[in-house]
Amino acid sequence: MGLDVAGLRVLISGGAGAIGRVVVSTLARHGATVVVNDVIPDAAARELLPEGTGYTPGDCADDAAAEALLDAAEALAGGPLDAVCCHAGIADSHPVTSFPIDSYDRIMSTNVRAAYLLARAAGRRWRESGRRGHLVFTTSWVQDVPWPEIAPYSASKAALRSLMRSFARELAPYGIRANAVAPGIVGVGMARHQWDTDPGYRARAERAIPLGELQTPESVADAFLFLLSPMAAYMTGTVLLVDGGASLYPMDGGAVADPDAAP
Ligand SMILES: NC(=O)c1ccc[n+]([C@@H]2O[C@H](COP(=O)([O-])OP(=O)(O)OC[C@H]3O[C@@H](n4cnc5c(N)ncnc54)[C@H](O)[C@@H]3O)[C@@H](O)[C@H]2O)c1
């Protein structure tokens, strides 16, 4: 028993993204056979993903996508899947009183509905075949925190956590598990750029993260590795929160001044 995922066949949606490709590299380095779904063209994915990674392009939010996606992933992985990671996600930022409703719908469709369709199809397949599969959902520390201007995103991640627990509860009798990884503020893309170039953002983010540093994508990948390994075999219905303590603070931590002050 250990952090051993050798031989596991894993599908991850959104696996060509900033966090996803580090998850893919980590799992592949530890011997898993990984298949990625993402919306980017095949050639671009080949450049981003480690050699040997299967790639099946397509919009996982399409109603008809889930079954075809599982078929393609099984063909590329050379057999039935052991784990399906519903990781694709999008975000947008507007005040709660003026959030565009088409953006709200896109966020819910990708972050909740697409994940549900994929997990539902995988769960059904495992249940019918008697296979003990594992669903892993990517939520976020903001599933519990009303960080300003991302209300639909926070709501989508809270919904995803709830769906995860329903999958865990209903499929446990078949030996099928469901868990979630909840990252904090990961230092990739825009967050990294702002951290490096905007002192105001950096000061605010430092207040928001008790450990004081942006999260690395490697720390998220390590959480996936642990959850997919035999060390987590008795875990189901759990959120593995890996956020540097961000969710301990209300919003950006401005209210937490003196740790010795009376509550
Ligand atoms: N970056 C963070 O700080 C952070 C924190 C907590 C949670 N997360 C979550 O981690 C996941 C990855 O985030 P990221 O920061 O790597 O973002 P990212 O934009 O780099 O990656 C997301 C990937 O999903 C793909 N995608 C989007 N819609 C899709 C669809 N309909 N079908 C298939 N693929 C689709 C995108 O092409 C992209 O490659 C998301 O679920 C996000 O909500 C991110």
TrEMBL record:
Gene3D superfamilies: NAD(P)-binding Rossmann-like Domain. The keyword Zinc-finger does not apply. PROSITE patterns: ADH_SHORT. Keywords: Oxidoreductase. It comes from Phytohabitans maris. Its EC number is 1.-.-.-. CDD domains: SDR_c (cd05233). This is SDR family oxidoreductase. Belongs to the short-chain dehydrogenases/reductases (SDR) family. InterPro entries: NAD(P)-bd_dom_sf (IPR036291), Sc_DH/Rdtase_CS (IPR020904), SDR_fam (IPR002347). It comes from the Bacteria. The lineage of its organism: Bacteria, Bacillati, Actinomycetota, Actinomycetes, Micromonosporales. SUPFAM superfamilies: NAD(P)-binding Rossmann-fold domains (SSF51735). GO terms for molecular function: oxidoreductase activity.
